[in-house]
Design brief:
ATP binding; 10 helices; Rossmann fold; 12 strands; nine-stranded mixed beta sheet; binds adenosine-5'-diphosphate; ATP-binding
Length: 266
């Protein structure tokens, strides 16, 4: 995509962003980007102005989930102008995928190149006024996370939401994530268990394909709040794959109770 200069009356960077929340996961494929998107849509539904900063170099998938494709990114005096998903400008998105010629290329980049890009990217987006900025990070705990934190200036980060699947809990990936938060002084706002059981579309019975409840146990063990569980939903994955709006699928679901708990602690 092309990068163009545009004069916009957006104020720079994070000056007018009230809350910054990181979304973390121990490994890829657990639904971190899906949950980030759901949280953003639920916050917007609750009347908040929301931004998503998609820093997942390994797979910037949020533009696809929000059906914005790969738009041209414009620059104003105070930085990159985010892409708005609606006319009311209530949901702003900036994805590292917008700035990369070939998103698959980053996989072969060395650490310093990745961290340099993240550093520039995190501090150079002209968000304007936002209630909450959700940051979709790469999976794991890497130099890239430290680069995100350094450039968000730690005191601006309100905390992190950890996404896990029931089976990932036992692998220790989430525990490492918790240790990372403790060491870097990031408050854990809570844990969400995704892909927690499968609700049969025919009889509505929930089958626990993987063991269930690991997220809740882990929350207890680590003194974190358990924000809820989201079941595997074939309709959700179909909507995501086909770029359809999936807001109606979770209007009554966990994500709403999760955001209300998070909102209370912010
Ligand atoms: P991550 O960001 O952790 O790598 P994604 O959010 O990209 O994971 O999700 C990985 C895949 O799993 C996607 O194809 C997504 O559609 C699917 N997925 C995630 N959560 C669910 C769910 N609760 N029900 C059905 N499919 C899901």
């Amino acid at each position: 995509p092309q990068i163009q200069n545009m004069d916009q009356s957006n104020d720079g960077s994070l000056a007018q962003v009230r809350h910054v929340v990181l979304v973390l996961s121990g490994k890829g494929g657990v639904g971190k980007s899906t949950i980030t998107t759901e949280l953003a849509l639920a916050l917007r539904h609750a009347g908040k102005k929301v931004g998503i900063l998609d820093v997942d170099l390994c797979g910037p998938s949020i533009p696809r989930m929000l059906s914005v494709g790969r738009p041209d990114v414009h620059q104003c005096d105070s930085g990159w102008v985010p892409v708005y998903t609606d006319a009311q400008k209530s949901l702003a998105l900036m994805s590292i995928g917008f700035l990369m010629e070939d998103p698959d290329e980053a996989v072969v980049w060395r650490g310093p190149k990745k961290t340099a890009l993240i550093a520039q990217f995190v501090s150079d987006v002209a968000w304007g006024e936002l209630d909450v900025l959700l940051v979709d990070t790469p999976p794991g705990t890497s130099d890239e996370h430290l680069a995100v934190l350094e450039n968000l200036k730690k005191h601006r980060v309100d905390g992190a939401v950890l996404v896990t699947t029931p089976q990932a809990v036992s692998t220790g990936d989430v525990r490492r994530e918790i240790t990372f938060c403790k060491k870097t002084g990031v408050r854990i706002l809570g844990i969400i268990e995704n892909m927690s059981g499968f609700v049969c579309p025919h009889c509505s019975e929930c089958s626990n394909i993987f063991s269930r409840g690991g997220g809740e146990e882990l929350a207890k063990l680590t003194g974190s709040e358990f924000l809820g569980s989201v079941p595997l939903d074939p309709q959700l994955s179909r909507c995501i794959e086909e770029g359809e709006d999936f807001t109606q699928l979770f209007s009554e679901s966990t994500t709403f109770s999760a955001i209300s708990s998070i909102s209370q602690t912010l």
